[in-house]
Backbone:
């Protein structure tokens, strides 16, 4: 297994395909969520993922700098651990690496995440706190969370 970080310009075609395939497997197939994954935000994001020896994505997140798309804080989105990656602590390692990458790239700004509601405790253990009311996105209960400490 290896961890990779790439900007849009650095992504190779096969890497992008593996990422899109993994996001669809988790969000569309497993969570039965019909949504527009190709939302125009990938070119703005930094992509962080773990892949196995066959280049299949095991865990993934996209990272946004402060101010991107009108949001003051840095953001983490499209957070997934695929079925093949679960039960190995990759979700926590993914978030640890995401927060470290954000701190390095953008001088440790506050970080916002739109968390699926059932993951509130998980993100809370990483220093995120609820910062607004629950909302529904693509048919799934979410809540906004913010992390202000590094």
Residues:
């Amino acid at each position: 297994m290896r961890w990779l970080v790439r900007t849009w310009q650095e992504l190779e075609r096969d890497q992008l395909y593996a990422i899109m395939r993994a996001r669809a497997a988790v969000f569309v197939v497993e969570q039965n969520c019909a949504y527009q994954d190709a939302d125009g935000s990938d070119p703005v994001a930094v992509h962080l993922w773990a892949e196995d020896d066959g280049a299949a994505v095991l865990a993934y997140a996209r990272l946004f700098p402060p101010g991107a798309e009108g949001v003051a804080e840095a953001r983490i989105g499209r957070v997934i651990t695929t079925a093949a990656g679960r039960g190995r602590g990759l979700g926590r390692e993914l978030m640890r690496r995401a927060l470290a990458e954000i701190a390095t790239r953008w001088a440790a700004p506050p970080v916002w995440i739109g968390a699926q509601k059932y993951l509130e405790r998980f993100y809370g253990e990483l220093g995120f706190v609820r910062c607004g009311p629950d909302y529904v996105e693509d048919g799934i209960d979410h809540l906004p969370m913010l992390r202000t400490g590094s």
Notes: Residues 2 and 50 are 6 Å apart (CA to CA). The mean pLDDT is 94.
